[in-house]
Design goal:
2 copies of one chain form a homodimer. Chain A has 8 helices and 11 strands. In chain A, the strands form 3 sheets. A 5-stranded antiparallel sheet of chain A has the order 1-2-8-3-6. In chain A, strand 10 and strand 11 form a beta hairpin. With about 240 residues, the first copy, chain A, is α+β, with helices and mostly antiparallel strands. The first copy, chain A, is globular. Chains A and B meet through strand 5 and helix 4 of A and strand 5 and helix 4 of B. Chain B binds a DNA duplex (30 and 30 nucleotides) through helix 7.
DNA sequence: CGTTAGTTTGACCTGTATCAAAGCAGGTGG
DNA sequence: CCACCTGCTTTGATACAGGTCAAACTAACG
């Protein structure tokens, strides 16, 4: 873990956008969030283990993983830009960077959010964001427990799209993410080979296009029907759109 | 939901025991918890939907479930006596009583616990309890994603045993719970038939005995090896042992 | 160019699902 | 006390989703 004093990143801005997707926030609140960027920034190569404390993802892609003794790996949750990473709840869990990523210290942001009064919009947005994060975990359980490979993939793609939308890192039609089939397999509890085949099927059905990290979902409604995914944002599209790291 | 003014139940006592399993609590704290039993008690038949608010399980067996449109059901988490049930995070989730069960209003207990100062043992115990609950959710993800049916079953049995131990509803060797293979199937993401076969195998291996609701785990260490489950309580055994409802 | 990381293909195998039917309690009512 | 439910477990036969292994293909990159 190479700590660098590199210039500011958009980490707190990402968090701000995420929160703004849950409740109408005042410009003052957002500005206060941005001012928090004081935390030191850390840069992480390939995949390694991030140690302790609360961190906020600035760019890249990380994951909370559980590695079994025989090499099987389960990715419990993907951590996207704008997400807050807490200390794992079990020693057997590790946070790994799936790609070169940047994170900043999130304790200031966390303290700031937790200190808001119950009736402030910022508090409510934060509550909703945490609720949504929890929902994603439970969704992961349903995916793995009762959905077929085909449905799982559809469901996950929609979830990722929604989450990236909320931080303004997706367009209405798709998103850019260096998500290999290897990673998808470990999220979805499938083999790489099968992930590949399922993706081909989705392509054949016209529900997915993939080209070097660019995922396009031409028909979200149809995907949602496949996976019984509730489309929360009827084409919520943030003003400024950009590609994810 | 049939609300009854029936005499007090041991609900807050169960919660007290659970918390006491995480940190050394003063008798005063425990007494304060017990005094909270003011909440009204509700009684629930077979399986139905419990509505809103925070509830504390007094007896029986409930679950947070997700039902898919074609009838597939995933049990996301089992709610045992002493557990706190929060409002589901998604409208598609429901809390159902898998058996006749009793719950009391948990908001008083929750408020009480949340109001403790950071340095009080009660606060720490509560933190650890919540952490553990979260760990169980993540364990469920790993189980469904990367463990075989055989491993899943072993893992779940150990988890249930540990949790029941913490509320004093298990002996060192086993526990009593009206857990049908039907329910197990929906927790483990398997078919009933397969659950049955896996249980037979465990029996043949001398790792499990089952007789009308009484689960016995003659060799927890061996089970733990099968499932890579970390045995937290080296035979923690509460003073007074009793059977679960 | 060779190397490396990722994707794709094919052949084959296996863990679990499905279907259908038969046992086995425990409770109820006659 | 029996006869009958009803809910749960067990069994067998068969089907399929998804895993495994191995190798070829592709593209980025120094």
């Amino acid at each position: 873990m190479h700590t660098a004093a590199t210039p500011a990143c958009a980490a707190s801005e990402l968090l701000g956008r995420r929160l703004a997707s849950y409740a109408l926030l005042s410009l003052a609140d957002l500005a206060a969030l941005h001012r928090l960027k004081a935390g030191e920034e850390s840069h992480i190569g390939g995949d390694e283990l991030a140690a302790a404390g609360v961190r906020l993802v600035a760019a890249g892609l990380l994951a909370e993983t559980r590695l079994l003794s025989d090499g099987r790996r389960q990715i419990i949750a993907l951590k996207l830009p704008g997400d807050l990473i807490r200390e794992p709840v079990a020693p057997s869990h590790a946070i790994v960077a799936l790609h070169p990523s940047r994170t900043i210290d999130g304790s200031a942001a966390l303290a700031f959010l937790d200190s808001r009064r119950r009736d402030e919009p910022l508090h409510q947005a934060w509550q909703l964001a945490m609720r949504h994060e929890q929902r994603c975990l439970l969704d992961q359980i349903v995916r793995l427990g009762r959905l077929s490979a085909h449905e799982r993939m559809a469901h996950l793609l929609l979830e990722l799209h929604e989450r990236l939308c909320r931080v303004g890192l997706a367009t209405a039609r798709g998103f850019q993410l260096r998500l290999t089939q290897d990673i998808l397999a470990d999220v979805l509890g499938l083999s790489v080979v099968h992930v590949n085949r399922v993706m081909q099927q989705l392509r054949r059905e016209g529900l997915l296009t993939y080209r070097s990290g660019l995922y396009t979902l031409p028909d979200r409604a149809a995907l949602a029907r496949v996976a019984e995914y509730p489309l929360a944002l009827q084409d919520l599209e943030h003003a400024g759109l950009r590609k994810a790291g």
